[in-house]
Amino acid sequence: MNSASASSDILIVGGSLGGLMTGLALTRHGFSVTVLERSTDTDRTGAALQVGFGLLERLTGRPQAAEIMETGVQAWQSVHRGLCAAAEGAGIAIIRNARVTQTGQNADTAWALTQDGLRFEAEVLIGADGYQSVVRRQISPERPDAVFANYLAWVGFAEESELTARFPPHLEFLESGPYLLLGFPLTAADGSAQRGRRRVGWGWYDAGHNEILRRTGAVEGSLVRHSLRPGDMPDALFDDLARLARRNWPSPWREAILECIDRRAVLGTPVVEYVPDRLVSGRMALVGDAAHVCTPMTGNGFATAASDALALVQFLDSAALATDPVTALQAYEASRLPEVRRLGQSGQRISQDFVRNARGR
């Protein structure tokens, strides 16, 4: 095994939104922060997020240039790009293609091992590695896995200029039979919100196509392994979705869905859930989807991850890191655990009601 390739104050496993926001928040105390991200920028995907005004300033405690990240409803990729730019500007070391296979700790340090045998050490390790979190296995070994909620979301994005329909300037939430649909306009790649230049996105919640998830291995038992990508989807499935879209969804969202189906530009995302019993163990803590996973129907996953970061930085300051980081992390857990459990349980009830109603129709 190689010797330690890096040592820092804070080691964050996972460089998605929660990990980047946490790293940015912790830089306000002058910590050196290393982020290990298993992916590269080229294979990222995601839906739309509501970005609050002044998010970066709230995270870092410093004024941030407005052009770094737009506010309002934004595509996941745009938010991720803005957070990466802010993190690099703050001196955070982001190491990509670093797949963490094991984490641990002793009395003095926490550490992570990567697939290629590198060891990274820090005073504190933060797990921000998503619903399939490796760090959660260490913190909650008795219940390490998020579970399938028994439905999925079909997701697609289209260019408004390619469509003749006129789209509203706001989010729309629609219901038809056993299905729910969230439609949302997004700014163009250059930030323009001008009608005709925007992108439009949609998320279609569906409890009637779980079999394709199991047949392709996207879901095994109660565990979600991966999303369903267009190459996994037979033409008959696209034909079925097109038929259902024509039957259930009104214009303009019907046109957006059909355009995505025609291009085979649809992602099937199994919905997962996890309500935590703990967020902390020793020098290790969880944030974001590694800590708690709620149905995207609630629309609060991104905001909750930001709240995790803002709570953590309240307790883990430079004095706490130097003297007693374990107690600081315990205070973070006491502050956040009741709220994230409440949100997670509320999300479970929403999912259960949706699946029950869908199966009853």
UniProtKB/TrEMBL annotation:
Q: Which GO terms describe its molecular function?
A: FAD binding; monooxygenase activity
Q: What keywords tag this UniProt record?
A: Monooxygenase, Oxidoreductase
Record keyword Oxidoreductase present? yes
Q: Pfam family of this protein, just one?
A: FAD_binding_3
Q: Which residues form the FAD-binding domain?
A: 9-61, 273-343
PANTHER family cross-referenced by the UniProt entry? MONOOXYGENASE (PTHR13789), PUTATIVE (AFU_ORTHOLOGUE AFUA_6G14510)-RELATED (PTHR13789:SF309)
What is the official name of this protein in its record? Answer: Monooxygenase
> Which species is the source of this protein?
Croceibacterium xixiisoli
